[in-house]
């Protein structure tokens, strides 16, 4: 009897227990889809599963040192991964910008760089550019590599599987209809609803839970770069991360600038002091839609925290929220705050769909926020 032991945070133990019993009973599904919020460790779990499946140790898997285990934790094994990439033209353009000389890398080189990053910090949330997608070519390269598989177990991790375009989705569906023996697919996504229903229904669904605040603190500190200042992982940062070490690491260096700006945004739009606010927003370089929406997320946390303050509940970002001084704005009630949350949410979708420029959208939000309560 082979024993399987998958490692990971305690909060996600239930998911691992389910996987381990499937492994022990030799009924592991050929395709699983791990979903859950961004930055909580879906890729980390996928790599742990890949090791367990590929491991050849006769007693305890994953052993961590056999060929199969090493292949699952090795950036050179690019055939074990499908990741979103930018279109060829965008990549070529970037290479051109980087140096005068052409330094165009092959797809394999690019993949290897990304995989190295993922192995180093599987929680990272901003690893792929917003325009990156999974193309049908990547799918075809994968299926053609099956012929050279040999007799070992092969796992393919499809990261951010919701980024498969239509052609890639259809190619993958075809692959799923006739999966080669000893081949396993592990898909991860934080936007399950964006995937084809036909793909979802062919994969075992595994929902991964966010971590506790203590676990976020520990995991973020563990995977962060050596020169990362760990004192930046304050209670407010961990509170904002809502169970995601990846988000904690993303917010940590921005907090010092963003949290006071979010406080300012709320205070100044209440005081109708727009000139200063618009200037501060301009200084903050929020033109990039992805970045702007991460900032608006901070705004949402702040407003949600004000709702907690009104209701007497414990705050997620105690220091930042207290600095608003809600008591100075007696007209602000729960309804005003709930409306503000809707306004922020709408601005985020406007920015995401690129219906207006980021600057315009943020200014419009400031004017609209707490309308009738100013
Ligand atoms: Zn092993």
Mind explaining what this structure looks like?
By secondary structure, the chain is of the alpha/beta class. It has 2 domains: 3-207, P-loop containing nucleotide triphosphate hydrolases (Rossmann fold); 213-368, no CATH class. Helices cover 52% and strands 7% of the residues. The longest helix has 27 residues, at 245-271. 37% of the residues are buried. The mean pLDDT is 92. Bound molecules: zinc ion. Residues 55, 57, 61-63, 66, 68-69 line the site of zinc ion (ZN).
Query: What is CATH's topology name of the largest domain?
Result: Rossmann fold
State the strand order across the main sheet.
Answer: 4-5-6-2-7
Question: Under the CATH scheme, which architecture of the largest domain would be assigned?
Answer: 3-Layer(aba) Sandwich
Terminal Cα span: 69 Å
- Looking at CATH, the homologous superfamily of the largest domain is P-loop containing nucleotide triphosphate hydrolases
CATH class of the largest domain: Alpha Beta
The unreliable regions are none
Write out the distinct hetero groups bound to the structure: zinc ion
* Separate helix tally: 16
Using only C-alpha atoms, the radius of gyration works out to 23 Å
The largest sheet, given as strand count, sense and whether it forms a barrel, is: 5 strands, parallel
Tell how many strands the DSSP assignment holds: 7
- Look at the structure and give the mean pLDDT: 92
Coarse shape = globular
| Helical/strand content category | alpha/beta
